[in-house]
Amino acid sequence: MNNKVLFGMYLPGNSLMHRLDPRLKLVGCFWFVILVFFARTWWTNLLLIGALGLVIWLSQVKFSKYWAGIRPLMWIILFTAVIQALFSSGGQVYWHWGWLAVTSAGVAQAGFLVLRFFLIITSSTVVTVTTTPLQLADALEALMKPLKYLRVPVSQLAMMVSIALRFVPTIMDEVGLIMNAQRARGMDFSSGSLFTRAKRLVPVMIPLFVAAFKRAEELAVAMEARGYDPNQARTKFRQLHWQRHDTWGTVVWGLLTVALVALRFVK
Amino acid sequence: MVEAAVSYQGVTFRYHEAGAAALQDFTATVPKGRLTAVIGHTGSGKSTLMQLTDGLLTPTAGQLEVLGQVITPRTKNKALHQLHRQVGFVFQFPEHQLFAETVLADVMFGPLNLGQTPAQAKQAAHQALVQLGVGEALWQRSPFELSGGQQRRVAIAGVLAMRPQLLILDEPTAGVDPDGQRELLALVERLKGQGLTILLITHQMEQVAQLADTVLVLAHGQLQFSGQPRALFAQPEFLTTQQLALPAAVAFAKQLQTAGISQFNQLPLTLDELAHALARQLKGDHHEQ
Amino acid sequence: MIEVSNLTFQYPHQDQPVLQGLSLTIPTGQWLAVVGKNGSGKSTLARLIAGLLPTPAQTIRVNDLPVDEAHLAALHHQIGFVFQNPDNQFVGATVEADVAFGLENRQVPAAAMEPRIEQALAQVGMTAYRHHQPEQLSGGQKQRVAIAGALALQPQILILDEATSMLDPQGRQTVLQRLQQIHQAQALTIISITHDPVEVAMADQVAVLDQGQILRLATPAVVLNDQALVQQVGLVQPFSMQLRDRLQHYGVPVPKEYLTKGALEQWLKRQLATRA
């Protein structure tokens, strides 16, 4: 069967963006979001669009894939933009009805809002498209390491996350299978009131929970048998290696920041 | 010519519009009142085929006729629902779908979904549980307290209680100990004797040799063979290319033949046929059959 | 060497012990098959040996190491365990990550892991699948990965708890072939809990468990040839034995002793040659 949906939006590839250190991608994305809020002029935003375009180009993933990620959120963005346009004031008034007015400042603000949404969503999509969930978990673990000194159980959390990620496809399969089996037993999931529909989830949820508990128990024993001890230090097979292109990536992002600050303050 | 219970007419199915076809231009018939074995490796399309047969999926192209009902790419959900009522589908490891508080309630689930009254459903459940040899002492117990083998039988009873006209069994003996396997195979044989149309997915060639009237072999979403088990097992090269094993009896007979120890006019399919043929030869009767 | 002496074990929620005064010695390098009906205690015995259940004090010694809380880590070092369900023991996101899991627990340095992973995967014939995800593998392949995960830790004992029971015939056959090769190549003690006559026939010794005790400890030939015993413990006889019995049923006087397929073939050859 070939309908396994890969968790997240990861698209396999070997582009520069794929090879970049996940820690850098994570921090870089976070930094980019800060820059998005920092940029308030058309020029600074143009610079950010340019940077994003560069990153998208480097990822060698078609823009249509990114667009597919944004599309479902488009209505929310547009709705927010319309509200923004209607409720802000200042500048020339194009149209008004009672206290609702469309002004030049409102339109400009709405425009920035759409742009910000677009920049933030697309930049984080670049990360999820080019990084496997597991790499992300590794990166998070590495970045959270300092929290160990605050007695946060970082490696246990990371283990939990990676096991959860490992079993997402298995559990998705299981849900499909159980639903099919109950449909085959004459269950109709698609009609009836909300209450009856909710009630119909019982024959799906119970087997799912039973299986999950059984799995958890068996997995725990299997992990113990293989010497896992949550309180013991572990070595790591998947090592994150900082490479030259990661340094270059950092430099580019540094330059972007400098340029942005310059554009904003040096008129 | 036996009446067809199911006929597939150029059925194609894709999970994704652009993806590879899980089933490609599939044409075959399943005779009524017979047992048809379906064999193929993981990814051969056999589970897709079974889901189509039960109306859990509709074809992307082509059509199929199941128990007189035609299913096309445009068939509505309601019509499919009608089909679930007539086709019983025992999934692999069916005990994983048990959910109710008691064994009896779980077996009644299907009949109640069919719109039967609780009294009718109870009666249907009783019959099915007796048929599966699940003792009355267990009926009010939680299905989760039972042993694996008992759970399997309760789950199968849950499907049989719906009195299907066509029964799909996906690896009914997988993961069961030898005693349990024997009992389940005896049940399949009994159901077959009652004239039920059965589709049996299996990896066990012994089961094919012993139980099947016809065999469908699938690979890469396409039909590779349709015919009687004897005809299938008489084609060793074909089986090798399909990476299918021979039943033990056939393999042993072949081995005796190639070693020049014995010759068979007709290849024995089962252990009993093999023993019978060998006994005749050993007693000096060379003109077997 | 594994020494079990007078072992009695009862689960807290049950009113009867599963194991009652069981004693057993398994020499190093032996392949022991453990058979018995469900509930006979065979799985419990395996788990107790591996220290996966609270083992009663001074009842089990593994290579002179008492199985108890204090020696658990050392014990896990020596024993590899493969469970029944292929899915519920696959921890890693990929094949290589799963094999690495045990090595990471044992704090093997990353650089030293690579050759051990490579070797373990080669031993089970899964090298080509290194980067595959579990959803892309069949049950048999997952079990081979599980065996590789155990082998990478270089255990002295490998316990298989119905490891082939959920597999299709071909998956089972490949797993067993690999096990046989591994057993021949190194002095690995194997304990396999099974219902499969082919797997039983591969063992050096068979322990037949019934109601928490060892009913019989003998070679596969002796156990499998005892039809009453085979039926009592819910096994089936291998094909050659079934054929022999069926031939006898048709009035052919086949010798009563245990016959492998090859031996039966030779016997038939002699008989048919004299007929011709």
UniProtKB/TrEMBL annotation, chain A:
Q: Name one GO molecular function term.
A: transmembrane transporter activity
Localization in the cell? Cell membrane
Q: What topology does it adopt in the membrane?
A: Multi-pass membrane protein
Query: InterPro entries, alphabetically?
Result: ABC/ECF_trnsptr_transmembrane, EcfT
Keywords, alphabetical: Cell membrane, Membrane, Transmembrane, Transmembrane helix, Transport
Which regions span the lipid bilayer?
46-63, 75-97, 247-266
Q: Which GO terms describe its cellular component?
A: plasma membrane
Would the keyword Transport be found if you checked this record's keyword annotation? yes
Q: Which domain of life is it from?
A: Bacteria
The record's Pfam families line, in alphabetical order, gives:
CbiQ (PF02361)
- Determine if Glycoprotein is one of this entry's keywords: no
Stated family: Belongs to the energy-coupling factor EcfT family.
**What is the role of the protein in this entry?**
Transmembrane (T) component of an energy-coupling factor (ECF) ABC-transporter complex. Unlike classic ABC transporters this ECF transporter provides the energy necessary to transport a number of different substrates.
**How does the annotation summarize its subunit structure?**
Forms a stable energy-coupling factor (ECF) transporter complex composed of 2 membrane-embedded substrate-binding proteins (S component), 2 ATP-binding proteins (A component) and 2 transmembrane proteins (T component).
PANTHER family noted in UniProt = PROTEIN ABCI12, CHLOROPLASTIC
What name is this protein filed under? Answer: Energy-coupling factor transporter transmembrane protein EcfT
From TrEMBL, chain B:
What Pfam families does its record include?
ABC_tran
List where in the cell it is found: Cell membrane
- What's the EC number here? 7.-.-.-
Single Gene Ontology MF annotation = ATP binding
Domain ABC transporter residues, every copy: 6-245
Please state what class of enzyme this protein is: translocase
Which superkingdom, per the lineage? Bacteria
> Subunit structure, briefly?
Forms a stable energy-coupling factor (ECF) transporter complex composed of 2 membrane-embedded substrate-binding proteins (S component), 2 ATP-binding proteins (A component) and 2 transmembrane proteins (T component).
Protein known as: Energy-coupling factor transporter ATP-binding protein EcfA2
Automatic annotation (TrEMBL), chain C:
What would be one Pfam family of this protein?
ABC_tran
Could you give a GO molecular-function term held by this entry?
ATP binding
**What CDD domains does the annotation carry?**
ABC_cobalt_CbiO_domain1
Please report the record's description of how this protein sits within the membrane: Peripheral membrane protein
What superkingdom does the record give? Bacteria
Q: Which InterPro entries match?
A: AAA+_ATPase (IPR003593), ABC_transporter-like_ATP-bd (IPR003439), ABC_transporter-like_CS (IPR017871), ABC_transpr_CbiO/EcfA_su (IPR015856), ECF_ABC_transporter_ATP-bd (IPR050095), EcfA_1 (IPR030947), P-loop_NTPase (IPR027417)
Identify the keywords attached in UniProt to this record, alphabetized.
ATP-binding, Cell membrane, Membrane, Nucleotide-binding, Translocase, Transport
SMART domains attached to this UniProt entry: AAA
Main location, first listed in the record? membrane
* Compartment(s) where it occurs, according to its Swiss-Prot or TrEMBL record: Cell membrane
Question: Cross-referenced SUPFAM superfamilies, in alphabetical order?
Answer: P-loop containing nucleoside triphosphate hydrolases
| GO CC terms | ATP-binding cassette (ABC) transporter complex
Presence of the UniProt keyword Ribonucleoprotein in the record: no
Q: Which residues cross the membrane?
A: none
Q: Where is the ABC transporter domain?
A: 2-236
- According to its UniProt record, which protein family does this protein belong to? Belongs to the ABC transporter superfamily.
Name of protein: D-methionine ABC superfamily ATP binding cassette transporter, ABC protein
Q: Which organism is it from?
A: Limosilactobacillus ingluviei DSM 15946
The upper taxonomy is: Bacteria, Bacillati, Bacillota, Bacilli, Lactobacillales
